[in-house]
Structure formats: C-alpha cells, structure tokens
User: What shape does this take?
Amino acid sequence: MRARLQSHRAIIEVPAGRARPDALFPSFSSSMNAQLSSPARAVLVTGGARRLGAALCEAFARAGWHVWCQFRASGDEARALAHRLRGEGASIEAVEADITTADGRRALMAQVTAAAPLTCVVNNASAFEPDTGADFDEAAALRQIGVNLIAPLDLARQLAAQPGTHECCAIHVLDQKVYNLNPDYFSYTVSKLALERAVALQAQSLAPRLRVVGVAPGILYPSGPQAEGNFAIAANANLLRRPINPVDVAATCLFLAQTPSLTGTTVCVDNGQHLVPLPRDIMFVTDELLQKHLPA
Assistant: This one.
C-alpha cells in the first residue's frame, strides 16, 4: 500500500507509514544540519543606530550574533552603540550605507558578506511622512515606497542569492496599522501594506533558501510632531492599557530569526493595538481628546 503526495508539480510516492522528512524534501535535512552546525551567525539591521534599531542590535548582539548596524545619517549614535556593546563582549560593527539606491544596497551587501555569509537581514529602516490620499506628493510617496518597500525586498533577494547552502531569514518590520487602517500617513501606510503582502509572496518565491517573516509593532516612540504628553496617553491606547516595550519587539525578531519552521507569517507585537480601531492616527485622536477635556 502506498501513500501519495500530490503537488502542482509532481506526485511523490512513498511507502505508507515510512515517510521521512529528508526523503520527501531533501532540503529539510541539509538546512536543519546547517542550522545546527553553522558557525557564528551574522545579521544586518537597517536603521540600526537609534530607537527600535538600537534595541534590535542589542538583542542580537547579546544573543551571540555578529551584528552589522547600518546607518545613513546617525553615525555618532551607531558608533557609540557599537562601542558600548563591544565593551560588553559583543561582536558588532557600524556600517554606513545608502539603502535608497540599488548601487548603495549592492555595496552594502558586498561589504557585510565579504568575510562570511549573512544569516539574517532585519529591514527596520523606515520613512514616515505625513500626507493623505487627497494631498500626497508624488516625490515624497516614491521616497517612502523606496525605503519602506523596495529596499527591504531587494535586500531579502540579495540575501537569498548568496553563494552556499545555508538557510537565511529576512525579517520585515511592519506596523500594526496594516491590520487597523486609518487614512492618515497615506503613502507610508500604502508602502507598509505592500510589504506586509510581500512577506508571503517572498516566502513562496525564495523558498527553501530564504525564510521571510514580518513583525508588526504598535506605537513605540513619539513620532514626527507628537508631543510627549500626547505620546504618554497614546502609548496606552491598546487592549492591555500599557506602553509597548521595544525590547519585546526585538526579542520577537530574535525568536523569528532563530526558529527555522517559521516563514510567510507576521507577528503583531502591539499589546493588541491592532484590535482597537480608530478613525484617525492615534496621535490625532489623542489631540482631539485633549482639546475637548483640557481647560481653554
């Protein structure tokens, strides 16, 4: 008696009750062995100098990864972060690169893979500019799409194209807003929506060499013109009624990078903010509430 496994490409026949993962999918055994026997793992964190990027660099470095902290304009912060973590015994280098151009991304990947393959890219760098569907500027929209969508897709593609057979992982940093829409920050939202859909598409397209996963944080830091008082209120506008710890987002990314069975999926790390629908961005909703309840 024989069991049949049918796909869109072929029918694979194996003896019933005797199927082995490495027999059905030859890459399974080799990729798992590569995970277990791999030398020091290396991660590239884009936008790694400040805020969530710095938390990501800290999490991976303290877990024993070699970290490439990419920056463009925040050189002092990136070098200070690298110096501090090396003082703790971590392995980290700050690397300047412009990821808004194809040449800049190619040069960056050539630099960080010159001595050893890269295991993971965390696409954290982001452009965030206010606009609406009625007044968006084409140049600004294209700029945000370039940073938030094209750069992550290209870096993931280059990660998968490295020589060798080791399994890699691309992590796209999204936003809980992709599951909780409002019309503010229109171009930013469009770019993140496209990247969220690309998590599954790239996972399908670049398997089995590359795993692709997403993480969708809620509000972590004051953004743009947001006042500290506004942020203090907005940070609690979630199901758990407390601010989201960036360390939790970084720890989730580390978990995604180190769990070889995860691909094509996104994890919300937002205290349930994506389940609290609002008509506008939380910053504007908070402003309206303050104006109503504060004395004139």
